Fold this protein.
Amino acid sequence: MASHGQISTLERLLFSFTRVFVTVGVVITGIALILGLSSYFSVGRGATYVSHNEVKRALNPSEATSSQSLQESVPELTIPASLNKHMGDSKNREALLSWLEKLTEDQKRDFVSNLSEVIDTATAEKESDDMVYDVINKFKTLKLQKLSMSQFEQYTARITKAAALAFALAMAMLVAMMSLVLVLLAIERNTRSNAPVVPR
């Protein structure tokens, strides 16, 4: 049995376990905080950015769509030749711009690239112009549906990120509390080590 001024084996084990637990917890929480904060602040401006051409189209839609080419209407995108051929006239250009209007920059690039591939495939298979336009319209329906699902997944991901950030903050508070316990244990150990041994 340990005397009053001595540290028992159980106390030493408890102190060692707490020190290891806090150290590992600090490392894990630090990583979680870094990932959580970087994810939280990684939302780009693509979904909210307003270009000059968007403002011009909003101010005078008919003039903007009639006087500009398809490439000029969306300067942030690269319009393939096949897409410009089938969607470059005034009426089809206006339709395409309305499809792209509510998409983010990444989604616009995905839409244009994917549509161009579909048009190239339809053209390579010697389909008539009417059939190509039917393909384009059906592509629009299917693609926008999939992009809507993708947006829902993005919202879910943001909620998950917020939950992860909240968890990281909770872990930080837990580690702070455990660090306080570690300090108190160290003080207690030092106090007992320095206490005089009472002779029996």
Confidence is low (pLDDT under 50) at residues 1-5, 43-47. The radius of gyration is 32 Å. The chain has two domains: 9-42+160-194, 52-156. Residues 3 and 114 are 79 Å apart (CA to CA).
